[in-house]
Amino acid sequence: MSVEAALGAFLERGAGGWGDLAFFRDGRARAVAQRVDARIAAGAHVLPEPSRVFAALEATPREGVKAVILGQDPYPTPGDAHGLAFSYLGSRRIPASLRAILAEMAENVGAPAPREGDLTPWAREGVLLLNTALTTEAGSAGAHLKFGWDGLADDALAALSESESPCVFMLWGAPARARAALIDGERHLVLACGHPSPLNRARDFRGCRHFARANAWLAARGVAPIDWRL
Predict the structure, then answer these.
(1) Beta-bridge mates of residue 168
(2) Pairing status of strand 189-193 against strand 46-47
(3) Where are the domains of the chain?
(4) Is 139 helix (H, G, I), strand (E, B) or coil?
(5) What pLDDT score was predicted for residue 199?
(6) CA distance 55 to 15
(7) What is the pLDDT of residue 203?
(8) Gap between the Cα atoms of 105 and 177, Å rounded
(9) Catalytic annotation, pick one of 20, 26, 37, 73
């Protein structure tokens, strides 16, 4: 299956309610998909597989979003990424950034740190795990960051910001925090801090308590808290 074909199938299935975003209506989605398909035709090993490229939007329908965690792009090792930001299916040790995320979550909710990195349960709880680039290439992190996928992230954040439904936006690291301007901070909760990566010299992710703060804010607005336990 090509990425363009996967896009068509995604839209035919209803696109999780995201299909009316300008990114899908004005031709940008098709243009990006064709650009990725051109790389596949040239022999590049694109990740994740086409059928999983739009997995984050399908796993968390637009009307059910309670929180957004914005990532950058998929893991560049085959078998690791499956379309949800930060989520990991690989058989090796959980990546350092995800370990930091899970440790913070466990401390916030008083649960043991998970031993596996599949975040699908979060997506089902209403947490949109969206990367700013939905594809990359094996062995080349960030390979598709300039392919035009970022328009989707921008449109999705803006649409959620316009919604009356309370939403928590977790923006970790400078690229994610730069998108705070797209969000109505009076209507929604914006939680921003440094990236969970060990390369973050400020070390300002651990102790941010974003998971606990998100649930407290949602509960105060009559929204069922997110079950962060895995």
Answers:
(1) 67, 189
(2) unpaired
(3) 3-220
(4) coil
(5) 81
(6) 10
(7) 81
(8) 20
(9) 73
Cβ atoms of 182 and 154 within 8 Å: the answer is yes
Instruction: Indicate if 73 belongs to the active site.
Output: yes
pLDDT in tens, 120-153: 999 999 999 999 999 999 999 999 999 999 999 9
pLDDT for the residue 214: 98
Residues present in the chain in total: 230
Residues of the chain with pLDDT under 70: 202
Compute and round to an integer the Cα radius of gyration of the chain.
17
The span from the CA of 176 to the CA of 70, in Å, is 6
The first and second tokens of residue 204, run together, are 């300002």
- Choose which CATH entry (3.30.1510.10, 3.40.470.10, 3.90.550.10, 3.30.70.120) describes domain 3-220: 3.40.470.10
Q: What are the counts of helices (DSSP H) followed by strands (DSSP E) for the chain? A: 9, 6
How many Å is the maximal CA-CA distance in the chain? 52
| Cβ-contact 186, 177 below 8 angstroms | no
Cβ atoms < 10 Å from Cβ of 75: 23
Is 3 strand, coil or helix? helix
Residue 210: closest CA among 225, 224, 190, 184? 190
Count Cβ atoms within 10 A of the Cβ of residue 77 and give its class: 0-12 exposed, 13-18 middle, 19 or more buried: middle
Residue 79 token pair: 């078998």
Determine the pLDDT at residue 204: 87
Identify any residues that bridge with 48 across adjacent strands, giving them in sequence order. Answer: none
